[in-house]
Amino acid sequence: MAEPRRLLKGRNGMRRCVAMSSDHEKNKEHPMTHRPFLFLASLGAGAMLAGAATAHSGQCGGSYEIQSGDTLYEVTQKCRIGLSRVMELNPAIDPRALSIGQSVRLKAEGHVHSQAGRDEDGGDDGRQAPDGDNLNPAPAPDARGSYRVESGDTAYGIARRLGISLMELLNANEDINPLALAAGEVLEVPTGDRSAGFSIEPHRGPAGADVAVRAHNLRPDDWVTVGVGPASSEWEALDQARTSSTGRLRTSVAVPDWADPGDVLTFVVDTDRGVTLKSGDFRVVRAEDENERDRMTLRGRVRDGVECPVLRTPDGDVWSLTGADANFTAGEYVEVKGRRAGMSFCQQGVGTLEVTAIDEIAPPRDDDGNRDAGLLDRAFVTGPWTAKGSDCSRPDFDVTRYPGGGLAVETSVDGRARTGDVALYDDASFVFDQGGGRFEIESRGEGELAVIPTERDNSRFGGLDLGADGVVFVKCPA
User: Fold this and answer.
1) Per-residue pLDDT at 226 exceeds 90
2) b vs e for 431-448, b when ≥16 Cβ sit within 10 Å of the residue's Cβ?
3) What PANTHER family does the entry give (predicted)?
């Protein structure tokens, strides 16, 4: 049965017919591969993929001159070129500070066709074969786990054909030289089977309020667009942001000024590969309603502070906690709700929260289906590990088996060689005696492990400074 369709009127007066889905009514955050509501991003998934294939010829030539009111996202849509490609060609550009008359490069220098249907950089030029099929159809990345290099291929061109980012391809093939690929060489292709996750915090607030946007399992080092719009209607771009080397996104945007109390909004994270993630409902309220601007919900680990208990968020912010409801066990990962205090004697962190509710919740974990809900097991953690992007010839720590069957971790803590015990499953951690401390360990994806300090903010582990959210390590070949 076909989905019912509804005619919507946009803010610019244009009318657009969009599919309405009953799933919209569920307050659930999930990825979608179609676009039920578009505004600045009105090309749709198919057009965006076509735009990526024609990025070099495009509709704007080799460059584009910024006009009054332009955003970088609008330029990518107008010129039919991916946002990630624009950022690669213009590494110094600041998408938040475009100036009228500024030139944006849309083609690589020295761009020529070395063979029919292929650009010098290995990308397709978008030309069609006589029967209408593309001369270089992109193979499905999930169809096989490998790709055989052909004569004239480049790493960037291969990544584009496979629909993955260059960093994703290089991370899967750390032993190759991307500048000297040999015909016949076999490359591993990421399967792309991880489900991206997306969340916002808070879920209600007035116009102008800040909304924290969090996503994971996106493509590493990729540019995405964050937008917002009325639920099941058009959305407009608010900001461009870049994901981390582990595919995580952490940024914040403001509720637009045009939002009125009572509106229900949906925030989106849009890639330039035809995939859009959408949030659950965000309800707009009056600024004066229940002092909404001072109400906050925070998540992080709690511990004893100098004068008051403190909570450290994944972003590294430290908040003091006060109130009769601020009961906790040090080291717990919690969700805290309350009001921001105007003045406090705690004098620690970026502010003080008067707690009205505190609940222990599960810490962030990946959704690796190969393990029980992402819990760490013996096989996963055993072996040498190095910081992501570092050399496996000198691992930062090594997990081995005790003769009696337990696991030991060998590394350095605050500059001193240490051997500690490994706890797994719900209490996964590295535990060192004689003042070495305890470090939480959490899975961050296949073959990736985060080590997180729980007792001190400035711990050094394996010679590395651990931030509030820890450091991600990758497993080295045995």
Assistant:
1) yes
2) ebeeebbbbbbbbbbbeb
3) AM15, PEPTIDOGLYCAN-BINDING LYSIN DOMAIN
Please give the DSSP secondary-structure letter assigned to residue 124: B
**Nearest Cα residue to 219 out of 245, 199, 187, 197:** 245
Residue 198, CB half-sphere, CA atoms under 13 Å: how many?
27
- Chain segment 98-152, per-residue pLDDT in tens: 899 999 988 765 433 333 333 333 333 333 333 333 323 333 333 336 788 888 8
Report the alpha-carbon distance of residue 391 to residue 389 in Å, rounded.
7
309 neighbors 328 (Cβ within 8 angstroms): yes
pTM of the model: 0.38
Let me know if domain 294-360 sits in CATH 3.40.50.2300.
no
197-201 and 210-216 strand pairing: antiparallel
Q: Domain 198-284: which topology?
A: Immunoglobulin-like (2.60.40)
Instruction: Classify domain 63-105 by CATH number.
Output: 3.10.350.10
